[in-house]
Amino acid sequence: MEQTADAQNAGVGTRIRSVADTLQMDTRLLAMVGAVIAIWIFFDIASGGLFLSPRNLWNLSVQTSVTALLATAMVLIIVSRNIDLSVGSLLAFLGILGGFVQTEVLPLEGAHSWWISIVVMVAVGAAAGAAQGWLIARFAIPAFVVTLGGLMFWRGAGWLFTQGRTVTPLDTTYNFFGGGSIGETYSWLVGIAGFALLVALTFWKRRRRLSLGFVVKPLGVELIILAILGGLIAAFVWTMNSYNFPRSDDGRGIPVPVLILIVVSGGMMYIANMTSFGRYIYGYGGNPEAAQLAGVNTKRVVMLSFALIGGLTAIGAVISTARLNAAPLSIGQLLELQVIAAAVIGGTSLSGGVGTILGSLIGAVLMMSLQNGMVLVGVQSAPQQMIMAGVLIFAVWFDVIYQRRRT
């Protein structure tokens, strides 16, 4: 009887995978989306309807933005069989550097202070990342060691800059990047533009695959997927618009940090899927020796991937410090673990070669939803960390099982 039940379960699993393969759907991503939906429903019931309120979802989207933004770059780092433990400390240093430029170098509230400080932060962030990547690629020092050193170095450099004091206040225009929003009308325009771009990309990709003789999804399936995505975009914009300003009927609209995340994610998807640099990273992560024999400049690829995450860390520092209107040394603590966990939960394989930008975004939403929900229902800090550790271990175990079945 047990063998019969196992055979039936295996048959159902095989049929589901067969249908998913026919429709070219990633069952792993679908499982993660299902997990996010289940978590949202559970916490909404447990919190008496607070979790899915527009106010909490607006705040959750802002809380997720920095982790998700850095996770998109961490995917490429892990895919190339490396790791970056320094992003939290580098974010703190860059935030302090930006605050120092605004308050000590340039006149506070000056016309150009905010954008000059951002340019300095991004340039220094990319240079710091490239320097770590150069050490890893040039001298074959393990990324774990180099970035662990970076974790201590950048936090210490921040201390030297400020002697432990918090840099505040920051420029008013600069603060818009952390706590601002674009209002109802512009939010709908962004939603419509995003959906139009999605439709155009879907049909461009379909036409391109057909011209190359590749299999495409049935047209009806493409239209159903677009309808679902259009509904999700409309629901997102409506929810963001439903959270009003205090003592006002005006909706806040899409938060600026989320808008930055959307733009960066689109850029990262383009880099990962449409450029030779992205293909080299996946090729190097899948088989480093083959990539080198194929003539790929693997040292340059590794260095550029670390420069990329350094630049995005600077953008994360802008969002974090602008939201606080301050640059404290304590900012970004344990952020590196959150970012790595989001990438791994999102399906990025620690053995390299496998991982998607979209998966890392879903992983970040899942992880931050768990944290947000546990806070709402009154779970203490210690159990929160234990539960998150359990989720991370489960994600790695699931990856091992998934990779084993693929082979």
From TrEMBL:
<feature type="transmembrane region" description="Helical">
    <location>
        <begin position="85"/>
        <end position="102"/>
    </location>
</feature>
<keyword id="KW-1133">Transmembrane helix</keyword>
<keyword id="KW-0762">Sugar transport</keyword>
<keyword id="KW-0997">Cell inner membrane</keyword>
<feature type="transmembrane region" description="Helical">
    <location>
        <begin position="186"/>
        <end position="204"/>
    </location>
</feature>
<dbReference type="GO" id="GO:0022857">
    <property type="term" value="F:transmembrane transporter activity"/>
</dbReference>
<keyword id="KW-0812">Transmembrane</keyword>
<dbReference type="InterPro" id="IPR001851">
    <property type="entry name" value="ABC_transp_permease"/>
</dbReference>
<feature type="transmembrane region" description="Helical">
    <location>
        <begin position="57"/>
        <end position="78"/>
    </location>
</feature>
<feature type="transmembrane region" description="Helical">
    <location>
        <begin position="301"/>
        <end position="320"/>
    </location>
</feature>
<feature type="transmembrane region" description="Helical">
    <location>
        <begin position="258"/>
        <end position="281"/>
    </location>
</feature>
<keyword id="KW-0472">Membrane</keyword>
<feature type="transmembrane region" description="Helical">
    <location>
        <begin position="114"/>
        <end position="136"/>
    </location>
</feature>
<comment type="function">
    <text>Part of the binding-protein-dependent transport system for D-xylose. Probably responsible for the translocation of the substrate across the membrane.</text>
</comment>
<feature type="transmembrane region" description="Helical">
    <location>
        <begin position="216"/>
        <end position="238"/>
    </location>
</feature>
<keyword id="KW-1003">Cell membrane</keyword>
<feature type="transmembrane region" description="Helical">
    <location>
        <begin position="143"/>
        <end position="161"/>
    </location>
</feature>
<dbReference type="Pfam" id="PF02653">
    <property type="entry name" value="BPD_transp_2"/>
</dbReference>
<protein>
    <recommendedName>
        <fullName>Xylose transport system permease protein XylH</fullName>
    </recommendedName>
</protein>
<feature type="transmembrane region" description="Helical">
    <location>
        <begin position="29"/>
        <end position="51"/>
    </location>
</feature>
<feature type="transmembrane region" description="Helical">
    <location>
        <begin position="385"/>
        <end position="402"/>
    </location>
</feature>
<keyword id="KW-0813">Transport</keyword>
<dbReference type="GO" id="GO:0005886">
    <property type="term" value="C:plasma membrane"/>
</dbReference>
